[in-house]
Amino acid sequence: MVKAVKKIKWKDEVVGWLFILPVVLGVLIFTATPLVYAFIESFFETPLREFSFTEWGTFVGLKNYYRNFTTYAYSSRFWQSLKVTAVYAVINVPLQLALSFLLALLLNREMRGMKFIRALFYLPVLIPPVCSGILWNQLTDVNYGVMNSILTAIGIEGWGWFNEASSSMPSLIFIGLFNLGGSMILWLAQLKNIPKSLYESARIDGANKFVQVVKITVPMCAPMIIYNLVMSIIATLQTYDLVATLVNMGGVQNSMLFYVVNIYQYRVGQFGYSCALSFILFFITAALSLVVMRFSKNAYYGEEG
Question: Which residues sit opposite 45 in a β-bridge?
């Protein structure tokens, strides 16, 4: 009897592994292998050549990691890319979190047609970033773009969009606002999980809508705040595809030289240095995520046990 049970369990395990085998192989082949290869390659100086698993180039140790601090040709672009990415993150992340939260509060009500309205706000998220970038590139063209025609009609003339360094960052942040629907859906899911009894008790005590949001909604949404914050930081630090389709690499006066754009520009001829930049970004992202998680210890995650 015991042997029969063990045989059944063994068969169940084999069947289970067969089902997840495609995913496991996909992770090993397309994620783990390139990651290990890039880490090893970051310690080599590679000439202009094609991808190869056998020719690594010249071993240079940590040179690719510290040349950002010793060689001006690399350090100037490195610090510029960090500056552009940091400015974008400091402005874009809080703005996206706040506006998507307010949008979720506005749409968190039961009324006819609300599901359709939510779908409209979420629809831009389904557009791939590359397609979105091509579309916005046409809309924001300073010569024949529709956006400048609209701005002229309301009395705003001469907006340079991505043709001027001063207007590039505000333009990118503005375009990013059309993707609020992604975070909005997550906020709505969290808002639906807040017990209605808390709001009923607050109303009995005389709390108005603003007090209810500050005292109940925000604290109860703490897990989602932390999740959205971490994911927004990671996504912002990896900004590339939208920028690559909107402007030439780096933009006017390197105003759009994001960190990942800088990595991409070194992919040919200095692939080892490009890999090193990638792992520097990984350490920066991990450090920022740990800082956020460090301040989330007192967050309410629901009833335990």
Answer: 58
Enter the tokens of residue 58: 């010249």
Pairwise CA distance, residues 140 & 137, whole Å: 5
> Is the separation of the CB atoms in 224 and 104 below 8 Å?
no
Cα gap 191→246, rounded to integer Å: 35
Query: So where are the chain's domains?
Result: 2-59, 72-301
SS3 call for 47: coil
165, 253 contact by CB (below 8 A):
yes
- Per-residue model confidence as pLDDT tens digits over 158-190: 788 888 888 899 999 999 999 999 999 999 999
Fold exhibited by the domain 72-301: MetI-like fold (1.10.3720)
CA distance 231 to 186: 12
pTM above 0.90, yes or no: no
C-alpha 243/C-alpha 168 separation (Å) is 10
79-111 residue pLDDT tens: 999 999 999 999 999 999 999 999 999 998 888
Q: Which of 305, 101, 91 is nearest to 222 (CA)?
A: 101
